[in-house]
Amino acid sequence: MRYALVLSEVGQGLRRNLSMVISVILVTFVSLTFVGTAIVLQLQITQMKSFWYDRAQVSIYMCTGFDSSDTCDGTDATPEQIDGIKTQLESDTLAPFIDDFFFEDHDAAYKNFTEQFAGNPVVDFAKPEQLNQTFWIKLKDPSQADVIKETFAGVAGVQSVTDQRSLLDRIFTVLNAASYTALSIAGLMLIAAVLLISTTIRLSAFSRRREIGIMRLVGASNRFIQTPFILEGIIAALVGAVLASAATVAIVKFFVQGFLAVNVPFTSYITTAQSLVVPPILIVLGVVLSGFAAKVAITRYLRV
């Protein structure tokens, strides 16, 4: 195969259909940016799960004088009930599951409440005795929270036992939904990109139908005829994929690390180095899809 001639044909095709090529680049760029964003979001969710699940605690809320639940009779948990919970937590039965725990009384709970909601009018109405006294428990294995829940659920003086992991699961469910939404949009955009690449190749082939006819008359193989058109599609998609890769890394560098990590530092964020796994995926995906679309389009055209 004469590579110089093939490359010359590719250059001519790109110049003749410049507007369509730019359209392919833009559609590929947008669709693969959605794909890259979805991948980054999944990486971030995994990072946050690892960070928060390791720190998730189980809380045992003691009764207050304002609670009339089944295990509370409208009176504050007694010192004896609190000591009973503490004794059980320190027992040999639960020791293998518990890494550490501490007790927060009314005054400590009120202090944390006022700090957390400083400037909120609700602070003016809250009183220490309205806030639950709480045992905060850190488990050696957070997945074994059911052991604590089963031990203390229904015990006199205990209002409720809460596993923070269940609250985190709701947050991660929302984040996963956002990730899947981005992937769905990306899928639609990729379909649009494939159709646009196919149309571009067919138009390019139609504009050079005389040259294709002459090539057939002189005995050029289908492979020789098809290669320039396939390369046109791959080059256009490759440019879009590179731009999408740069955009994805930029999102992590300037938005995640440059903004979120500075202004919302309560969790762990993925690094720019971690985001570098995304560009190879986007480039391979763009090249494969464009090559497939171009191959199908030119093969069908040459059969007509």
Automatic annotation (TrEMBL):
InterPro entries: ABC3_permease_C, FtsX, FtsX_actino, FtsX_ECD. Coiled coil: none annotated. GO terms for cellular component: plasma membrane. The keyword Transmembrane helix applies. Residues 57-161 form the FtsX extracellular domain. Keywords: Cell cycle, Cell division, Cell membrane, Membrane, Transmembrane, Transmembrane helix. Residues 184-297 form the ABC3 transporter permease C-terminal domain. GO terms for biological process: cell division. Its main location: membrane. The chain crosses the membrane at residues 21-45, 177-201, 229-256, 276-298. Belongs to the ABC-4 integral membrane protein family. FtsX subfamily. Forms a membrane-associated complex with FtsE. This is Cell division protein FtsX. It comes from Klugiella xanthotipulae.
